[in-house]
Design a protein that fits this description.
alpha/beta, 4-stranded antiparallel beta sheet, 498 residues, globular
């Protein structure tokens, strides 16, 4: 009979005596946590192999820690994803399945969020920028009020000028400028970084580090970019020549994909230079990717300011740093833009653990991991016992042994309306295994689920749905069972099932 060990026991078993300091630092040397979340950041980074985008600060962070190459969010839109990783619970548990349903405490009034947990452990907890979601907050999480508290979508700092812009015109160009009289121009503004919110968030994070340096802290820093609109100071656009910006590969829907798997990229079509229907104008895809890259480089620079101050204050050796993007993003692949699908481009996300407690540095971990795993991992890094109700698994053994085999599958989901204005009537459940992506769309009133199967060994861009091919009957049946058995059954062998 296979011996079953607890998840905490697995950590001890993996790390051995020398690793116990990694899992349980002495009380007088409590590890700090710097938690950085970047909005709509997909793994379009140098440390993930992109040779065009310029992200030197995030790449430097990766060289100090472990980069997870196959990490997946639980839902590919910001509020459900953030709710999931900040509670350690999956969307079917939180009941937060779209951006309009962000009040998780209405369903789970006693849930302990990640920063709230650290506050209970005696840490000073602070949040800056977009953490829980746009305009959302959890006051129980913070020792001091979140900044900005309750300000939704604050993309610009010049509020007086912003107030003069007609409501219908506030978000109508994908590369707006701060000079609103020139809003049809694609020229970016020549302004300092702190003319935009992310620059101010970075400055406030630097100040917070100085103020908290003498006590254990949990600092959450949420950057808005590269979320639409692609606003960034001109110098970040100037980092790129339009000629080097790639056109999206495979800019057509996957062959054989059900209609419910796709969407009309509504989030992008509200801008004046984007058609309400149909394809983009010639050259527009490259312009959008240019804007995304510029906004990514701007966010990277803000990350660098925070990390630089961590080094300057000699805090890096006792601070665990985690950096993630809240969901993936399509840049024209599959003829899709933005997020809100179950495809690889939307569910796969960047995730880097770095700083204090990293037995391995500058390495990649290819095992399948999920965002619900972040909460228990940080608990282990800081020597705390995580809440029992968490629905993830600590990745601490992978930090010590990045190449080890891990989960059988990573699970995500996304709702679709069955009828107009009835969001959430149906749900698409998707699962990434070592080789396949398997998706079921469970829609009310339909006698049979719509099914997708993509073979990543032969088709890494998910261009052909092969669910109906006779040669795939056996793997299809196995994947159906794995999805039905759920995430507990997909944990590594020999671990107790929470």
């Amino acid at each position: 009979m296979e011996k079953v060990v607890s998840r905490r026991g697995l950590l001890r078993q993996t790390l051995g005596t020398a690793g116990l300091a990694f899992g349980q630092p002495p009380a007088q040397e409590k590890r700090n946590v710097l938690f950085i979340v970047v909005d709509d950041l997909r793994p379009e980074l140098g440390c993930y192999g992109n040779r065009v985008v310029k992200t030197p600060n995030i790449d430097r962070l990766a060289r100090r820690g472990v980069t997870f190459t196959r990490a997946y969010c639980q839902q590919s839109v910001c509020t459900p994803s953030r709710t999931s990783f900040l509670t350690g619970l999956r969307p079917d548990t939180t009941k937060v399945i779209d951006n309009g349903r962000g009040e998780f405490r209405q369903i789970l009034p006693d849930v302990v969020t990640l920063p709230q947990f650290f506050r209970q452990q005696g840490y000073e907890t602070r949040g800056l920028g977009k953490v829980f979601g746009e305009g959302l907050n959890d006051p129980k999480a913070w020792s001091v009020p979140l900044w900005p508290d309750g300000i939704a979508g604050m993309q610009y700092v010049d509020l007086e000028k912003w107030s003069r812009v007609p409501v219908a015109e506030k978000s109508r160009t994908p590369v707006p400028t701060l000079e609103w009289e020139k809003r049809e121009s694609s020229q970016a503004p020549e302004v300092p970084d702190n003319a935009l919110q992310d620059g101010q968030v970075a400055e406030r994070a630097v100040q917070a580090l100085r103020e908290m340096r003498g006590k254990p802290f949990f600092l959450a820093v949420g950057f808005l970019k590269p979320h639409l609109p692609f606003v960034a100071p001109k110098k970040y656009f100037d980092l790129y020549s339009p000629r080097e910006i790639p056109e999206p590969p495979y800019s057509f829907p996957p062959k054989g994909a059900p209609e419910v798997a796709l969407h009309p990229w509504v989030e992008l079509r509200g801008y004046t230079d984007i058609p309400k229907k149909g394809p983009l104008p010639a050259g527009k895809a490259r312009e959008l990717i240019h804007g995304y890259y510029a906004a990514t480089s701007y966010a990277d620079a803000q990350v660098g300011k925070v990390l630089g101050e961590l080094d300057r204050l000699n805090l890096s050796s006792r601070t665990a740093v985690v950096l993630l993007g809240d969901n993936g993003w399509h840049l024209g692949e599959h003829d899709l833009w933005v997020k809100t699908t179950n495809f690889e481009f939307d569910t796969r996300v960047p995730l880097i653990f770095s700083g204090a407690g990293m037995p391995a540095q500058g390495v990649r971990a290819p095992g399948l991991v999920e965002f619900v795993d972040i909460y228990p991992t940080l608990c282990d890094l800081c020597g705390c016992s995580p809440p029992k109700e968490l629905e993830g698994l600590s990745m601490a053994p992978l930090l010590a042994e990045p190449a080890r085999k891990w989960k059988k599958a990573a699970f995500s989901q996304f709702p679709r309306p069955f009828a107009p204005k009835r969001a959430g009537d149906g749900m698409g459940y998707t699962m990434r295994t070592e080789r396949y992506r398997y998706t079921e769309w469970r829609m009310p009133g339909q006698t049979q689920n719509a099914v997708e199967l993509y073979d990543h060994e032969k088709d890494p861009f998910e261009t052909v749905n092969v669910a109906g091919r006779p040669e795939n009957r056996t793997p299809l049946a196995q994947l159906q069972k794995t999805l039905q058995d759920g995430w507990r059954a997909a944990l590594p062998p020999g671990i107790d099932k929470p």
